[in-house]
Q: What sequence folds into this?
């Protein structure tokens, strides 16, 4: 089982980025999936998660700005990030089935 996050990059504050989590070896549609992030010098924190029934949950710091969604036909989970802030700078990871994916770096410049 492997997960791979992609879509990170450098963006100015106020901008948007969309992340994708791709899976091999599992059908993401059968599991809850979560996005986490880890900023330099900080602990990894939950950003958002989505259940198999597509219920969603968000960290207070991203509510109203980030949207998690899934496309079961493509075996992908997305994280759309709008109104980005410098404090959103972190490596973003997806997690499912007890597996961490490789992260993708998001850098938000002020």
A:
């Amino acid at each position: 089982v492997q997960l791979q996050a992609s879509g990170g990059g450098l963006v100015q504050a106020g901008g948007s980025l969309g992340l994708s989590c791709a899976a091999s070896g599992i059908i993401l549609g059968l599991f809850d999936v979560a996005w986490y992030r880890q900023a330099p010098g900080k602990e990894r924190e939950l950003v958002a998660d989505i259940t198999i029934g597509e219920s969603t949950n968000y960290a207070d710091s991203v509510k109203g700005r980030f949207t998690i969604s899934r496309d079961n036909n493509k075996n992908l989970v997305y994280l759309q990030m709008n109104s980005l802030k410098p404090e959103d700078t972190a490596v973003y990871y997806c997690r499912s089935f007890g597996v961490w994916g490789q992260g993708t770096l998001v850098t938000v410049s002020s």
